[in-house]
Amino acid sequence: MNFIKLTALTVFVVITATLFAQDFEGVIEFRRINYYDTTNYTYHISSDQVKIDEYNKDGKVTGTMLVNLNTQEVLAVNHDRKLYMNIESKPSVKDLSNSKIEKTQQTKKVLGYDCVKWTVDNPDYKSKAEYWVVKDGNYSYFKRLLTALNRKDKIALYFMQVPGNAGFFPIIGEEKGYDGKLRARLETKKVTKKKLSTTTFNIPAGYTEFKNK
Predict the structure, then answer these.
(1) CA gap 48, 134 in Å, rounded
(2) Residues 46/141, Cβ–Cβ less than 8 Å
(3) Architecture of domain 26-201 in CATH?
């Protein structure tokens, strides 16, 4: 095989691999730590759907959110009352233009994944966020999820300031004040890649829609 054919074949293989790279599908378990308490969550992710379960200290699911990443629709499910309702929230109006962003070359393994450190420092809010981001960029759901939820916490808002963040997932994220005290931390406990049934994202049978009058 001559050089021209070999080069063409190499380019074809690279392009094909990129086009057919599969976005993450499966289950991610993590916990959120802040000043007040620790809360556990499980994300079920498949294509354009995300299901978020929140647990109490006894390990019982206390609430669920169903997110359609295409339509940006968010449904909150109350299991005690067997109700669900549409949730609408507006984007944050915080001015984060003074954020100082750095994509460092520092790497480490977290849960077996090769990760790189990103940081976002904002003097206006006297805090700094640090992320260990999975280098494999097949997590397109994450940025779309943050957009749908319009999260207002600094860990989410700071991450959204990072250029080229689409497709990347922070397996660990934390915010600290300039005094060094931890304000919030999100840490992944387990990642399981697997095919999920479409019924995972259905509203449970017998639940009624709650509408504000």
Answers:
(1) 20
(2) no
(3) Clam (2.50)
Nearest to residue 76, comparing CAs of 18, 149, 10?
149
Distance of CA 68 to the CA centre of its chain: 14
Q: Report the predicted TM-score, pTM, of the whole model to 2 decimal places.
A: 0.86
**Over the stretch 36-85, which tens digit does the pLDDT of each residue have?**
889 999 999 998 999 999 999 889 999 999 999 999 999 999 999 999 99
> Which residue is it, tokens 């890649």?
193
How would you classify the pairing of strands 83-87 and 49-55?
Answer: unpaired
187's tokens: 């840490």
What region does 82 belong to: left with phi over 0, alpha with psi -120 to 50, or beta?
A: left
Query: Cα–Cα distance between 128 and 10 in angstroms, integer?
Result: 42
- The predicted-structure confidence for 147-164, as pLDDT tens digits, reads as follows 999 999 999 999 999 999
Instruction: Report CA torsion sign: 123, 170, 146, 60.
Output: negative
Cα-based angle 67, 68, 69 (whole degrees, multiple of 5): 105
What is the residue extent of each domain of the chain? 26-201
Joined together, the tokens standing for residue 86 give 């549409």
